[in-house]
Amino acid sequence: MLTKRVISAIIGIIILIAVVFGGNVFIRIGVALLSLVGLYELFSVTGIIKKKGLALIGYLGALVIAVEDIIGRDKIIMFFYGYVILLAVYILINHRKVSLQHIAIVFFAQIYICYFFFHIVLTNALPYGNVFIWMIFLGAWTTDTFAYFTGMLLGKTHPWPYISPKKTLEGSIGGVVGCGLSFLLYGYILQAFGGYRIHYTLLFLLGLLCSIISQIGDLTASVIKRQYNVKDYGYIMPGHGGVLDRFDSIIFVAPLVYYFVKYINIII
């Protein structure tokens, strides 16, 4: 099982590096595909997938969000007006089979998966975007790594026994500290080998915030699984589960990194 996880992780990292270095078009396509698969997984878990017309409306929203910056915000607002009308017509026609809860799940999925994911594309489009985009993945995955090993060595307190019984408070703290230090190391590498001038205090703060938000994202995905009594969202990544199992933290971290680096100068 561990070997399968390692091989799957290595292949995933290679694909990630290729996509990021491939530039904006590849990143946009990658985010769109991940969003569609993520929607499929959430729709499968919640039962929306059985409402085929409603699921198709959800997929349509994902594709439009993937080109939001190209279309323009005014047209996106106009699209969402039409989107609400489309959902309203759908529930009028299918009012005996579809409830407001189903509509709410589709709307939640658009924001939680598609819109949050899209911030990876927006981050890459910023000045120094090729530097900032890696902070999204660094923030999520170093938190997971440090939390896992700290919890394994020191973990005793289990604050979320229902949501995620294996997670410990000690592991959570280790994840925050480890992520902050990882960001400092990343800043040092950028300065030493890339010639960037880094504001280390702000970079460390971003690392701490990324870790906290990352863990909120992880727990959010876990509580949804608990409520619907499923172990994993999917099986697309052997040993890791589905897109939402592997990218649950990244979905939450991407908007944080985007807004932080857009309005606060980490590179000076």
How many extended strands? Answer: 0
Strand content: under 5%
Gyration radius from CA atoms, angstroms: 19 Å
Give the count of structural domains: 2
Shape, per Cα inertia axes: globular
Structural class: mainly alpha
Number of helices: 11
Sequence of secondary-structure elements: HHHHHHHHHHH
What's the overall average pLDDT, rounded? 91
Set down the secondary structure blueprint:
Blueprint: H1 2-22, H2 24-46, H3 52-65, H4 68-71, H5 73-93, H6 100-124, H7 129-154, H8 169-194, H9 200-227, H10 243-246, H11 248-263
Tell me what you see in this structure.
The chain is mostly helical. It folds into 2 domains: 23-125; 127-268, no CATH class. The chain is 78% helix and 0% strand. It contains 11 helices and no strands. The longest helix is centred in the C-terminal third of the chain and has 28 residues, at 200-227. It is globular, with a radius of gyration of 19 Å.
Which key phrases capture this entry?
268 residues, mainly alpha, 2 domains, 0% strand, globular
What is shown here, in short?
The chain has eleven helices and no strands. The protein has 268 residues and is mostly helical.
